[in-house]
Structures
1.
Amino acid sequence: MKTFIIYSISFLFSGFILAQENLVIKRDTTELEEVIIIRKRKLSNYRQEKTLSSIDDYLEKSNKVTMIKRGNYAWEPSINNMNSDRLNVTIDGMQIFGACTDKMDPITSYVDVSNLDKVSIGSGQTGTENGHCVGGGIDLKLPTSKYNESGLKTSLDLGYETNGNYRTGGLDIEYSSNRFYINTDGIFRKSNNYNAGNNQEIIYSQFQKYNISLQTGFKLNKNQSIHANIIYDKATNVGYPALPMDVSLAEALITSVSHNYNNDSTFIKTLKTKLYFNTITHIMDDSKRPDVPIRMDMPGWSDTYGFYSKATTRINKHKFALNLNGFYNRSLAEMTMYPNDSNQPDMFMYTWPDIRTLYTGVFAKAVFSLSDTETLSTSVRFGYHNNTIAKLVGLESLQIFYPEITDSKSRFLTSIASDYTFKKKTYDVSFGLGYGERAPSVSEGYGFFLFNSFDNYDYIGNPTLKNEKVIEANIKTNFHTDTFHIGMEASYFHIMDYIIGDIDASLSPMTIGANGVRIYKAISNATIFDVYLNSSYKFSKSLSINGTLGYNYGKGSNDENLPLIKPISYLAEVNYNAKNFNAAIQFEGNGNQSHYSSFYGEDETPAYGILNFNLGHILYLKSNRLIFKYGIDNILDANYSTYADWNNISRQGRNFYANASFVIF
């Protein structure tokens, strides 16, 4: 399989000279994929209250996305009430995998707003362009190179928030000509412990992070260009109040080089080929916790090498896209325990026994224009997936539970999706169906005594698990006039061989104080359903209101509620937008989480509602701009937590913030 990837890469590079074509399909707004635009230096609508919002803040504005919080930093995204194991999260199409067994470093934590242009969110099988998934895909898209004769442009960003003494600073320098482009930027974030409502300090919620990136491009001719990107991200002294350990280091280096071809006069309209490499180091430790049963160090490493080649073409009114991609990943994590009695020996084990993952696959999509009002979209993805246990001691440890397993496991994965859209001037409706599969994650397949503080159990992986499979259906409809809009979207997922931990009473936990041991197994099936209603009304060109109401449901074939299923949620907002000024007041909250899952460690989360207020304005200083965003979060200083807050850690109380951006042309 490695030989196949090498030959594939060689073939793709030969395409630079022979094919000279490229693929990019711009998605219609009525399709199921959602795009969040990141324009941190412009006045924004209600989805962007702060110019220096983190990626987590942006993602949380989406109906489909919820951020699972274990602290004040590095929130884990979930789509359609499915966590990161069931998602495909990429950076500009590049596969990258966290190095933490406790999910303290989701992929979204290794980029920042300064790196990105937009975030593309695909629900269910519409998110399989870059890889297989069950719940959906998130692609954090890097900016495209901007070739023009504008010369040098600089911007400075500053932000401050009172809650946690949170400071942010960023600098961006860009130079462009008609043949050459280079951009470098950096951003720094630092926060002390934040306070929940009523001035309750949440200890171990501090963090510090900086992110630096470099992007450059060179035009070979009017149709071809070469680009290179480097992102370096480093977080230190990151506290996780919901967990028994903190993080002393989370570090990533993300690199890529690509060749782009664009030509509307050839059969292949676009061709983008990228080679990439990324490496992550993540170190958990409990050295700042005053009282722990036993001291532990838990470092982890993840290295990924990969490629993809994406092409698009158009035949009459029909659009076609193709993506051939592959990657090789190494994931290794270990744990060393230091007994309080110095006479006792240290204890060591591999929690991820150096798992090597090799994948190659192909994605194809066709968008057929049936008429001026009707569109049919169909996509397929096929992939080969192989896991190999590189550490013999890790294989021997897992063979205690699975005597027949070998050091290698291969799988074939399939994804098929289709949706039909009917669009008129004042309304549109779309229907979608899909089938997909995913391989178990490294933890689900090969994890060894991983402690989960959510349900207080140790977890053991299961290399014999089958592929998890899903059948899904969705519907989306909108009605709108010049002043009024109302829309509804709903999704249904029937997930077969649903992977989740099952208690094994015959095993004893390794973690002191744990309730027992769970082994990853597959229940027959699980059902997840969600529906959202969105509406807005414009009183005038400047004044508008909008609102969202959502309902979610999830249950397994064992008749147990699934964990981390969002209760009834709502958002109501009044917006005022003028040319150089905007203001908004928001009321958002969740209902009581009555369908919680005590079997999987959840308890009931009470209803809450919070009030937010934000303002923004822009000043023009000749050709330069000065942009201000400021406001108050949680005006009434409510003390609350949501269903997605690990171990009921309270969220931030009242918070005053101010962001300023100065753009120099």
2.
Amino acid sequence: MDDVHEDAAVRRTRRAFWVGWGLLALLKLGIAWRLPLFVDEAFYWQEGQHLDWAYSDLPGLTAWLTRLGTALFGHSVLGVRLPFLLIGALLPCWLVRLTAREFGPLAGWRAGLWWLLLPLAGTLGLLALPDVPLLLATLLCLDACLRLLRRIDWLGVGELAAGLLLGGLTHYRFAAVLLAGGAALLMLREGRALLRQPKVWLALAVGVLAWLPLLGWNLQHAEAGLRFQVLERNPWTFSLQGLRLGAVQLILVTPLLLLAMLQAAGRGLRDPRPAARTLALSGGLLWAGFFVLGFFADRQRVSFHWPLAGQVALLPLLPWVLSGWSRGWRVAAHGLAGLGLLLALAYALMAATAQGRAWAAGHGFYPGNFSDWQALAQQVRLQQASAPPGTRLLAADFKLGAELGFVLKDPDIPVLDHPLNRKHGRQAQLALWGLLQPAPVPSDQSWLVVANPAFAGFADEATFAHWLSRQLGGMPTPQVVTVDAGAARYWLVLRPAAGVQPATAAESRPGAAGVRLQSGADR
């Protein structure tokens, strides 16, 4: 390609990137404003209201970001998410800069476009999840290593230290990024030379400091967080269910883009340039490692997002590979990736509206973790108004405690000792906050209990009702609240103190025969 044509291609691609970046940022902002908090987001908000260096499930950074967002932008779902949206908008720009420095401006803008089109990367920041700062830390470390391979300077050392610091404060999963990156450097002659530099070890020492709060928390609390992340959530037995992760990646990355990434990893390993080999090794090892881990690790919780850091490391190599494809195949790859992104955004948009959630429920894929928590909270307020004086609110599990806590602006709603708390590694944290209510609950106190029998993890509603009755020391007939046109059902149980009769009692039973209290979304 001659200089004139290359300059024209750079201008066209740059314009396409900024148009796509702006449209995607506006669309994500609009969806984030309307989408109810995901249950994990609500718990990170709750952690942010109890500021600490580390928590039972994660280091502190995700919670700190939710606290910062609500402090700067107000108590709202958008306030919780804005720091993550801003980081998510920054990341593709950073990738453009990294790629352009190593492989030229045209490759930089094209790599940025692929970031926008990659479904998981394009939607990054829509939810307030640790994957957002984790990707920032990963990109900082990659950029710093490539810079230091060119020349050892304090700017690169500082960037590496910042990336390591952010990663250690974000998630246990950043250890996989360190292992893959470290292995890649050790496998390269230039990488081994880099690791002999004292300035690089200074950055590594700063990175070690980031893990001290998490280490201290685990030492103080019988390794509860480490045991959950490493032992309790992972069976560590081989299962062919791990193939599901590969199948999900085929869908989420889209088939042609997945093929291009694998080809990029293979060609990058044979490239004489240290930057290409470093990216290919880092991304390939991380992606392959998580794929193998899928055969032995957690099969009950979402894990399809784990390899994203490895995919991002391969994005700078994509333009080089795709330039060798025919125009038809390139168009098809762009089209499939764009379709995947649109489907991901469409799902989020559907979950953001009551009508969309009701439609999804009618077609068998109701997004239960995005229920209409405002409508549920409205019914809780009505019940509190008619309850005996001094009645305390009690949530059956950590999910309801966090979601209702956010809507009611109360981060200290006590929670029952529910199996879900342990399944998601939140039991120790609730106990540390003094919010874990032992069974049976005190009989000298009136309680309004909110429960979700559908997502309780029990065999059926009768089994759950029996468990709840034992927790409460007997259970009055619950009132049934439905939201999203009946797609989600909740129980409100008014358990008065001994010798106290409730002012009102709606006669309903668990199941279809119960009284249906309509929420505003149902009317």
3.
Amino acid sequence: MMSLLSDRRPNRVNHCPARLSLLTLALATASASASATDTDTIRVQEPDTGRTELETLVINAYRPAQTIGGATKTDTPLLETPHSVSVIERQELDARGVQNLNEAARYTSGVLPESQGIDNRVDDLYIRGFDAGSFGNNVMLDGMRAPSDSNLSWNRTAFNSWNLERVEILKGPSSVLYGQIAPGGMVNQVSKTPTLDQEHILQLQADSHGRYQTAFDTGGASDDRNSLWRLVGLIKDGGTQIDDTEHQQWFLAPSASFRLNDDNTRLTLLGLYQQDAGGSTFQFMPYQGSVIPGANGYIDNSTFLGEPDWNQYDRNIWSAGWLFEHQFNDDWRLRQSARHTHVDSLYRTTVGYGVRGAALTDLNTLTDGHILKRRAVQGEGDSDGQTLDTRIEGRFSTAALNHQLLAGVDWQKTDWDFLRKAAQVAPDAIQIDIYNPEYTYYDFSKVLFDQMSTKETDRQTGVYLQDQIALNNWRFTLGGRYDWFEIDSLNRLNGVTTRTEDEALTARAGVTYLFDNGFAPYLSYAESFQPAVGTSRSGAAFDPITGSQWEIGVKYEPSQIDGMITLAAYDLRQQNVLTADPLNQADERYQVQTGEVQIRGLELEGRITPFAGFSLIGAATRFDSEVTRNNDGYTGNRMIRVPDWMASLWLDYTFLGGSLDGLSLATGSRYVDETYGNLANSLKIPSYTLYDAAVRYDLGQVGNSRVQLSLNASNLTNERYVATCTAATACYYGSGRTVMATARFSW
């Protein structure tokens, strides 16, 4: 690991905020034993699993999860999972004022949220250097993948986070349980479902952009408590960070649970309808004017460079499914998850003239340093996805070994179509001044022509087997999976059909040792695969793109305080990457599968409460990325959107007693080192540091209700920063300052 820990730019590392996070976590942990007596604890028995969990008498919004379902598809304690995972619980989402998946992941090691800038259409984030967001199809809901469109389609899901009970972030390859997936990791969103003694919540919010929001969460149970229901909903409307751009959204998510056969059988029905309307906050910024100054400096991060009449992202999402469980006896049970999801959307936008990913020729793309040429496009999409996952889980012993066996088969299918149109209009006819935009209100609907029209069906079937073995203090995890997948695609513009059909075998293994003092070192190996779609000289289909990772780490769960700290180091490689065919002549664009990239990393993350009323979340990440094989001339360069360092720290203190009883103060900071937007490493993106804060006040009992008032602020200084660039004409600003006031009533 010496080469990993050495920095290629030592003059910057000495004051890197990652050091601050490392030091703060260490000091907080060291002081834990001295202050542990400040927090009384009790043991609470969970009726459903029989597992003992540690609870504190003082409300703690940052309690680490005790189990995680997404990593193993079993109720495995987090400490015994031989992988680096992060779980953001509902209480933390509320305390930090989280509004979407990007905000949920802000204080997580190894994760670069908002990797494509502010974008209210999708959830876009990178995990360990690879796309794990909406466009990468690596976002799950209750362990089931949303409909997977081509990365050229804008028809995507993005579920409102108010309907989530928790967010699970799995780092590293996860194909053994989920099939085709990027090697960096995945996100599993866990829906709110009915619970006994349901708390009723009404929440009113308003933010500094003029957005107003009302949300509720309610439920109940029958007299015999065998039938439960829950209804979660939200409506919001108003402005966004971007000028002349408003957005509306509402959703309803009903669910019902039934306990049958003396509670040996449980069935939960889940439904959701969500509607988005209004404008998109996603827009192209020129490198000149965002990363480097133009004629009059930099573009404001609220400037709208599109057309008010041609900025639209309307989307409808509905889904229906179930979670089923039957307990045969004390040791064996059957589980099944199923969902149908429909998504349709209409997207219209006017952006800077240029192509994402285009080769860099000149960074100064503006006319006279302030005039931006533009283009306009429209996209219509529609998709239907079905997924079914059936698994049987059993416990048994062989000699001194205690086994928890999981065997399953899952199937998923997506039918989707996409029509993209472009406006036939000269770029300089609709050009705009980036410092003083005057909109043309051009009627693009009369000059549209078909640019892309695709109809496709994607299928995947996988069988998997996993054995979790306990031997005294040792925990072993072994898993394997075999997948069959196919892609049938029709280009409706030329009538050409293509078929990609292949198979993939993936494996995973891990070992953990549980020390009595709370330390749990582990070692693991995992694999992943993704279909490869490209053009070979022979016309033959490509093999799957594969990923493999070795990870070593240690988790620490103190016995006398609430918290967990994880330190992990890994070596992650992606093989069979498409790269240029060395035999290409002139304008030939054939590809071969000899490319490879490598990323090595060191991650530290912790959620701890060293003494009553004070909690902290700390994360520090060190990346070392490299293109190890490439025919395009990029060998030895860094991977895109992978900083050398990332760090974050969130501190929260609640006054207990006295005149300030019920008042909570929180502050946080996030640092992202410089990155590159292309493999040529010619598009350099500067580093940035952002600051957040929150104030909460619990009014206590008001009548029969509990009332809490809060004020959350992100990017306090309104730092103007670029998240990334994909071309000299395509850079993307990150979120500016947002202040949100909340009144929460519960009973």
4.
Amino acid sequence: MKGTFALLDIAGYVALLLWGTHMVTSGVLRGYGSMLRRWMGRYLAHRPAAFGFGVCVTALLQSSTATGLMATSFAASGFLGLAPGLAVMLGANVGTTLIVQVMSFDIAIVAPVLVLVGFAIHRRTDDVSFENIGRVSIGLGLMLLALHLLVGAMAPVENAQVLRAILQSLASEPVLAMLVAALLTWACHSSVAVVLLIVSLANAGVVDAAGALALVLGANLGGTIPALMEAHTPVARRLPMGNLLVRAAGCVVCLPLLPLVAHWLAPLGASPARIAVNFHTAFNLALAVAFIVPVQSLARLLVRLLPEPPAPNDPGVPQYLDEGALDSANVALANAVRESMRMADMVEGMLKGLVEVFGKDDRARATAIGRTDQWLDRLGMAIREYLADLGGEALNEEDGERSQEILAFVINLEHIGDITANNLMEFAAKKAQAGQDFSAEDIQDLAAMHAQVMESLRLGLTVFLRGDLRAAQQLVARKEALWRLENEASERHIKALRERRDGGGGADVYLRILRDLKRVHSHLAALAYLPLERAGMLQDRLVREPAAG
């Protein structure tokens, strides 16, 4: 029974270690995930920067798995190139070894201090950033406390002859030991926790140095599996597959040499635990040195092995809304932005098609616009549901604001699609059935308003993607110019009809077209309201819309 209780204690302490790791990871992502997303998108074009980013972020997150999932999603969405993404993963693999190096020393004395300080910060502040700092501090304290308790729990294991014999026999079969450690790491989603558990086993004398090294190889191999399993497309699998190939190559080279490697590392620390920790660092440093230069060639190989699938026949099917990314708000938001840009491309195509429909009575183009609106509605519904699944405590304040921006963007695009496909196409059909032709001056006015709408669409996309406040001010200010264009065009059209003493049917269609182009522009201008409001600039830029009359 003592052995059973000892195993339960070990399982509980490992769970505490995993929970502490989760608290650190979630605290950093909630507090600084948006900043990390921006850095990853803007500053990682070069391999050294990408490598350094991977090291630093993994040291902050306490998890190379979290870094891998983030980098995988950004690489799949096009925000991060495959070669820089591989460099990020090489850095993440090194970064996770630094965590193990620090945790392997007996610094449990600071665990209560970290928990106490973190609790005080978390409870005594309303600032979300400080709350997340407190969460990180509590998580670190729990990790150190769990490691300290694990050391004590290993004593009965050392005296349990049956269990000791099983673990020693496992350690004597390096391939089997590596596979078992890989499966355990996959189940835990934390190579840090598994390597620290191996260190505890080595400290207790349960496994020798060579056996510990085999288990460390398995932990490194298993750490690549979660990101690979949660990638659902060939493009998304490229980065985790590259990381798996790199570590698998290292395992193949090192596995036959484990006794020799243990002998080489002995001068740095003779205990099996210290040899295992140093091997974990040396292994990943060696892989980084070996693969950082040919990383571009590896990227090309992965593209050939995992080619991009053909575009789906149904454009209304989402391509980037990865359900596995919902645990990481910044990754999920990047996916939603990518899908929203597909909607923007569809809206741009619909608006460009208005020229052919009204100028040439192109019925095929009108039918295509109506079909595009159906795809647009389905994508909009999928994005809204995805953002709803993301909501909750996973979102920090900045991510919550970004979620609202994406939602507003999607809703406004849907309204523009409805106006274009329903109202404007209906007017085009009436015009064609009546055999009416607009005058050259009318067509010129329509072209001017259409050009203004297309320019505002480009400004709206700039505001949405970059949060450009100057573009947002320009977009709101353009409303006045468009209203003036509509009024002048309406007056000229009505004046021309009076001079010709023409009927009012054509006038009604033309004026409604002008009105709906203005409505489209109003939805585009609405994209600027949220960023301007947050910056306190909305009241200075609002333009009062004249009453319809």
